[in-house]
Amino acid sequence: MAANLPLPRRILAHAHWTMGAQKMSKSIGNVADPFVDIERFGVDALRYFIVRNGGIADDGDYSNDEVIVRYKKDLVGQLANLAARCLSERLGADLNVFARIGREQLDHAEPGDIALRDMLVALPDRVHVLFEQGEFGRGLALVFDALAVANKHVTENEPWLMVKQAPVPERLQVVLFYSLEAVRLASIMLLPVMPIKAAHLLDHLDITDNERMWADARFGAGWQPLDRLRQSKPGVAQLFPKLE
């Protein structure tokens, strides 16, 4: 007020962090060294844990064991695993046909694809509402629920067997589209939380810098033709290194 600046219209304050369900205290010794943990887990993985497990109304409990669970289950097991499986050179994902496939799937999807398609169509709006309400943990939970369904979808469709058929069925690219569209949407929605890792994932998908806004997080909105061919980049499996 004294500076004659406009007052904030909204203040969002998070709850406390505890450790072992107790208030952190230097005298007790139940404290975390953020610099040590950043060195161990990486800044983006730690940011993800804090936003996912931290509370607005209820306290969040910090534990290295819980960070490891999130790291291995969510970031490695769901996100990086799905991208690595479907960007395998052996499967030959053709990113240049995905824009057409996305349009076609909006009009008509196979019965086994409808649940995942509808989940991905609704996901950005559902996450946006929760983020606007400050419910970041719940929003991130929706993102990783969708990734879990996408992982199940690709496992059930077995593209690694399709690629061995002669001729290779067109269905292969549809299956890969659903998996990598889930990764694309998730990566855009994760950018505010994990700006470095999410950007690297989008790099692997050859999603350009001007295709990474929230408005681009719509089913089938990505993969539009460029003045060159889209080409995925290898090495996504190393995105989240194995913890020592």
The secondary-structure class comes to mainly alpha
Instruction: Characterize the biggest β-sheet.
Output: 3 strands, mixed
Strand proportion: under 5%
Mean pLDDT level: 92
SS summary, helix count: 9
Number of strands: 3
* Strand order across the largest sheet: 2-1-3
Structural notes for this entry:
This protein has 9 helices and 3 strands, in the order ββααβααααααα. 53% of the residues lie in helices and 3% in strands. Strand 1 and strand 2 form a beta hairpin. It has a 3-stranded mixed β-sheet. The chain is mostly helical and 244 residues long. The longest helix has 23 residues, at 64-86.
Summarize the structure.
The longest helix has 23 residues, at 64-86. Helix content is 53%, strand content 3%.
List descriptors.
9 helices, 3-stranded mixed β-sheet, globular, 3 strands, 244 residues, mainly alpha
Task: Indicate the topology.
Layout (H helix, E strand, L loop, with lengths): L16 E3 L2 E2 L10 H8 L1 H11 L6 E3 L1 H23 L11 H10 L3 H22 L3 H22 L1 H4 L8 H20 L4 H10 L40
Parallel strand pairs: 1-3
Antiparallel strand pairs: 1-2
Helix pairs in contact: 1-2, 2-3, 3-6, 3-8, 5-6, 5-8, 6-8, 8-9
